[in-house]
Structure formats: C-alpha cells, structure tokens
Amino acid sequence: DVVLTQTPVSLSVTLGDQASISCRSSQSLEYSDGYTYLEWYLQKPGQSPQLLIYEVSNRFSGVPDRFIGSGSGTDFTLKISRVEPEDLGVYYCFQATHDPPTFGGGTKLELK
Amino acid sequence: EVQLVESGGGLVQPGRSMKLSCAASGFTFSNYGMAWVRQAPTKGLEWVATISYDGSSTYYRDSVKGRFTISRDNAKSTLYLQMNSLRSEDTATYYCTRTFGYFDYWGQGVMVTVSS
Predict the structure, then answer these.
(1) Residue of A nearest to B105 (CA)
(2) Would the pLDDT of B100 be above 90?
(3) Among A50, A99, A106, whose Cβ lies nearest the Cβ of B44?
C-alpha cells in the first residue's frame, strides 16, 4: 500500500500566520492518465471531514483562496495563509491514484 | 442541499453482524459513486469500500474483504454496508461519502462498537 507521511504531526500557530503541511508519498502519485489524485481534507473538532483540495491544487467549492495546494510526484504541500479560527483541526492528505486509496496520518493545527 | 444521514450503528458482539444505512438527498443519487470511510477512536481516517454509481463495481480494503458488503438501492437513494464476522478492530465511526473521484460530501457518521 502507498504510505503517505505527513509532517509535522502537530503545528501551533498564531492567528494570521501562515501554516505549511507536508505530505510525502512512498510512490509517485501521477496516474497513467496524467492526473495526480492527491487530496486534502480538514476535520474540525467534533465534525466530519470536509474536502479542501483535489488533484493537488484545485480548491473545492466554497474553500477560501488562502488554502493553496501544490506539489508533484511524491512531495506535496498544503499552505494556509493568514490562519483563521475556523481553520483549526486535523488535516489529512489522501491519495486515490493507487489501490487501495490511503490517508496520511494527519496534522493537527492548533493555536499557539 | 446535499445530505447524507447514516444509521444502524451501535454495540455488537465480536463475530456478529450489523448493517449500516446511509440515506441520501439533495442530489441525483444514481449519478454518483459512494463510499464508506471509518475512523477508529482517536485515530485517523481509513477508506473501507467504494461502489460505482450503478452498483456494478465494488472495491474493498483487504482487511474487510469477504466480511463486508457495500451495496446500494438507487430507487431509495440509500447506501448500505453489511458487516459480518465483526472484530474489535472494526470499532470506529463510519462515514458515508459521495465520491466524484474525491469525497466531496460526508455524513455525520455512525458509531460501531464491537465488544463483548
């Protein structure tokens, strides 16, 4: 199975700061069709996960433009500029390129 | 508004069965693949199974193959997960999700506890 390693495991920020989360894959996530099926989800405290980013860098409907996904191959990054209170929670990367689909271990974003 | 509402969870003994349901509304259910994702207490997310829009194709993680069955009734806009031979490691919150490649909408989750 593809292993997605997220770093850091925990990230303490001040509101208004930028936050950066890394997701490294044990295999390239570029599919034979040329697309890279790497997604980012946020699980806020006590809530279900919600989709933020799909295909590395595409923001889902309603996701603010302060969320920026980037990367290729095996290295991916989610940047959150100007962190706001509603951004706190656990972030997961997820790959659907290889079977079985797998999630990263999660990165908890909390206030300093 | 897309809504996914899971039901059917609870406490079950090891080796027994349980069936989860997910009632969908707010979209044309028969046009979308659906999936189950679970989360053990204090743990991360884990994909469980996916079914195609018409039910003709199903996919499972290895640890549930042969024990779990994902199915759907497009006339009732409902997704199911039949879980047999349950184990303690199946204890988790189970989320129903709509899939369009990515999981774009999620239910609120239903808790399944496997314990004697």
Answers:
(1) A50
(2) no
(3) A106
| A49–B103 CB contact, under 8 Å | yes
- Within chain A, which residues score under 50 in pLDDT? none
Q: For chain B, how big is the Rg over CA atoms in Å?
A: 13
Q: What is the pairing mode between strands B18-25 and B78-83?
A: antiparallel
3-state SS class at A15: coil
Q: Are A43 and A93 in contact (CB under 8 A)?
A: no
Separation between Cα atoms, residue A106 and residue A84, nearest integer Å: 19
pLDDT digits (tens, 9 = 90+) for B28-85: 999 999 999 999 999 999 999 999 999 999 999 999 999 999 999 999 999 999 999 9
- Model pLDDT, residue B101: 84
CA distance A84 to chain B (A): 22
To the nearest whole Å, the CA of A17 is away from the closest chain B CA by 26
In whole angstroms, give the CA distance from residue A95 to residue A29.
Answer: 7
CB contact, 8 Å: B27 with chain A? no
Using CA coordinates, name the residue in chain B closest to A40: B102
